[in-house]
Write a structure and sequence with these properties.
Helices cover 42% and strands 16% of the residues. It is of the alpha/beta class and 158 residues long. The modification 4-aspartylphosphate is found at residue 66.
Amino acid sequence: MPYKCNVLLIEDNPVDADFIREALNEIESNIQLDWVEDGEAGINFLFQHCYSRDADLLCPDLILLDLNLPKLSGREVLEAIKENPNTKHIPVIILTTSSDPRDIIDTYSLHANCFVTKPTDLDEFTAAVKSIREFWTRCASLPSPDDCSFGRTPALEH
């Protein structure tokens, strides 16, 4: 059975979430997309569900994160992800409407893996998501779920 790539989308705009879902479905059927609508829900998803030994959910292979979120900002979520030893290995792609250089610099300083300004139509969105998917699930050779068990990789355990 082929490996299913688990993607967590933290996005407050339902229209953008639908664009991303449609784009992912158009380019790949082997992606499990989980969507939460605010920063607090994103943190809860990661820290209460994904890392519980009893959880049926898998740790995401990739996180798509908007910056402008209710409850906790995307920056706060990114900082929490990258400060936690169980989640800091997960690639985080900032997918936002902002193209402000300060946002780009700030998120990279918080260890975002990529910054993408959201396109405005479905074709452009699909092309952007396809590029993200190609790089992060093929070129970057993400670790397998076995290698990511609770944030540890075999190389780090020796």
